[in-house]
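[[Per-residue structure]]
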Amino acid sequence: MSSFDDLFNQEQPNKESNQPFDKEAWAQKKQEQRETVYAMIDETAESVAKDGAKFQSYLDVQGRFDRYSVSNALLILAQRPNATRIADFDTWKEQGAFIRKKESGFYILEPGEEYQRDDGTTGISYNPKKMFDVAQTGNSRKRETPTCPDDRTRIKALIDHAPVPIHIAETLLEGTNALYLPDTREIQIRRGMDADDIFRALAQELAHAELDKGNGNYDRSEHSFHAYCASYMLCRQYGVDTGGYYFDRAPQMLEGMEPQEIRAELSDIKETAGEISGRMNRMLAQQRQQKRPEPER
């Protein structure tokens, strides 16, 4: 019979020799991480504002992670621009996945504790959180690749609960497929277009309608860039061809802005696209629910 006594003769670690937890050192390390992450956000915002291709890449990332803040989309762009599905180590473990060897994580910010500012208002601290993309994992449960709705369903979702009426018009200028009219608070659209042209044109004009706060002095030219970008994000999200979109003038639109100002412009674009996609997703979810077969009794 073999003996297992040798298992109990191994040298045991000396717990007393372990270094005690140094709260100050830990706090200092967290602060350094936080400063590094915030610096990365500012640097990426500045780089996005100087390069049209980089700006377009940001829109792609923000479109894939539409529920993430602008700052976190910038962080993903800087560290893992091709990410498609991210989670922290524990979440992947709960889902039965493991992080592949030699894979390093990347950071986003998550809300922490509330604190009192000097002026008496309440703020929220944000802490760096290490994440991993699905491509860095093994044995992850495969998700079904989301399928884009057909042309008719996609357009119906786009106009569902639209904030303004949409009418076919015979008098639009040549080259104009759709137009938001702030004076009458309506959108006019050209007759007889194909599905992709309808979606692109309507997405942009619906973005204008969202950006118009209804105070009677809407300046279309002031918001044309925001609406154009929101239209692009919506097309990317719902499988509409984006080959005709160009962002060469992004540096001109964002020229001279500080990182905080750039993030504010990006937030306007994100929120505008998010209002429209939120309505679309609700309509599409209801449709999927209606198509589910009734359970057998």
